[in-house]
Specification:
2 domains; binds pyridoxal-5'-phosphate; alpha/beta; Lyase, Ornithine Decarboxylase, Chain A, domain 1; globular; 29% helix; binds lysine; 424 residues; TIM Barrel
């Protein structure tokens, strides 16, 4: 059964009516389905059965502690990109030895902390970072486990803002440079070269780019072996897309099977442990943003439904012109359907969540902005001093608060009025 579905015209999350959640917790509120998150992760884990595979959940997609906890209990590893995300994994009970640390700009402090707690691997993205990591590890008297993130120059066919595997992107080490940088890594005294890493982009809806990147990775693995550098793992990144509108991404199992088939054709393909860093495909369709219509407003040109969620809550539409389906929470009352622009209260013309949607809605109605589990709350801000919404996790007929709604006073709690010397 779909996690979000209608029963007698009422939209439910599992067995809980979204209208009841709005009543209990207010709006805007993010609602996640535990079963949907668990089954997405389990589909990856099931497809990997019989192989040495670690699916590392990319925290950046949604870093709520309850979600980390849920995935940690199912055996997930974690892909992090900051010291903050590292602390979240630990606070949620995740295991340091299952963390891979990605990102182009790791600070010394972040490196120290990650070495102290013993992360699984650093995905290093530049020569300077490699040298710094060696130095930081040496000062601590430790060895740093490393992979180099290589940039395979593969077009993943995604929105230009989220492609990462092209030569022009800031990510990774150019494919042609990789052998030289690996030699450097192998020569530095405080590093252990463990693997190779590659992540080509996000919301990828076909299998081909993953296989093209894997081929480039395997070519490198062979050149490295010839140079006497033997790797233990391949980290193939994340990036599998989901259905927002009419996309038809491969299933999680189909992607993993295609990858394993390709690996099996390589003479040493079975020797490597395989890591993945999936984010969106685990949580994206497991969450919605629940919002209430404040006002309807029609001018000569457009119909606007002004809702209580905005671009500060879900910025994907304004940032990428991303499509999110919009569903009425109560689909029973027939009203004349018009084409509505669903917009928020923020003072920006770019503040919209959906445009030109045929919806039958009235003031006070509840709407669900669908497929909002990934890069929703995680990318939200407090622009216009808007407290961010609550987060609720549903399991069966239970709904629990997993993040309280912010209060306005929280938002300026760390600010100061003019201190004395400047007050005059
Ligand atoms: C290094 C890295 N790993 C994993 C991910 C997760 O990607 P996705 O949510 O598309 O699976 C990202 C984001 O694109 C990333 O930058
Ligand atoms: N934040 C983006 C994806 C970027 C993925 C992070 N590398 C989105 O909402 O689609």
């Amino acid at each position: 059964m779909e996690a979000f579905h209608y029963r007698q015209h009422r939209l439910l999350a599992e067995d809980v009516a979204l209208a009841d959640i709005a009543e209990r917790f207010g709006t805007p509120t993010w609602v996640y389905s535990k079963a949907a998150i668990a089954s997405a992760f389990d589909e990856f884990a099931g497809a990997a059965a019989g192989r040495r595979v670690l699916v590392c959940y990319a925290l950046k997609a949604n870093s709520n502690l309850a979600i980390i906890d849920l995935l940690a209990r199912r055996g997930a590893g974690f892909d992090i990109v900051s010291g903050g995300e590292l602390e979240r994994v630990l606070a949620a009970g995740g295991d340091a030895s299952r963390i891979v640390f990605s990102g182009v700009g790791k600070s010394r402090t972040e490196m120290q902390r990650a070495l102290e707690i013993g992360v699984r691997c650093f995905n290093v993205e530049s020569e300077s970072e490699l040298r710094r990591l060696d130095e930081v590890a040496g000062a601590l008297g430790r060895r740093a486990p490393v992979s180099l993130r290589v940039n395979p120059d593969v077009d993943a066919g995604t929105h230009p803002y989220i492609s990462t595997g092209l030569r022009e992107n800031k990510f990774g080490i150019a494919h042609e440079e990789a052998l030289r940088v690996y030699r450097l890594a192998a020569s530095l005294p405080n590093l252990d070269v463990l693997g190779i890493d590659c992540h080509i982009g996000s919301q990828i809806t076909t299998i081909e780019p993953f296989l093209a990147a894997l081929d480039k990775v395997l070519e490198l693995v062979d050149s490295l072996a010839a140079a006497g550098i033997a790797l233990k793992h391949l980290d193939l990144g994340g990036g599998l897309g989901i259905r927002y509108d009419d996309e038809t991404p491969p299933s999680r199992a189909a992607l993993l099977q295609a990858v394993f088939e390709r690996l099996d054709r390589h003479p040493r393909g079975r020797e490597f442990e395989v890591l993945f860093e999936f984010g969106r495909s685990i949580v994206g369709n497991a969450g919605v943003l629940l919002t209430r219509v404040e006002y309807l407003k029609t001018n000569a040109d457009r119909h606007f439904a002004i809702v209580d969620a905005a671009m500060n809550d879900l910025m994907r539409p304004s940032l990428y012109e991303a499509w999110h389906d919009v569903l009425p929470v109560d689909a029973s009352a027939p009203r004349e359907a018009a084409a509505w622009d669903v917009v928020g209260p923020v003072c920006e013309s770019g503040d919209w969540l959906a445009r030109g949607r045929r919806l039958a809605i009235g003031e006070g109605d509840l709407l669900a902005i669908m497929s909002a589990g990934a890069y929703g709350m995680a990318m939200s801000s407090n622009y216009n001093t808007r407290p961010r919404g609550a987060e609720v996790l549903v399991s069966g007929d239970k709904a629990v608060l997993v993040r309280e709604r912010e209060r306005v006073e929280d938002l300026f709690a760390h600010e100061r009025r003019l201190p004395d010397p400047l007050a005059g």
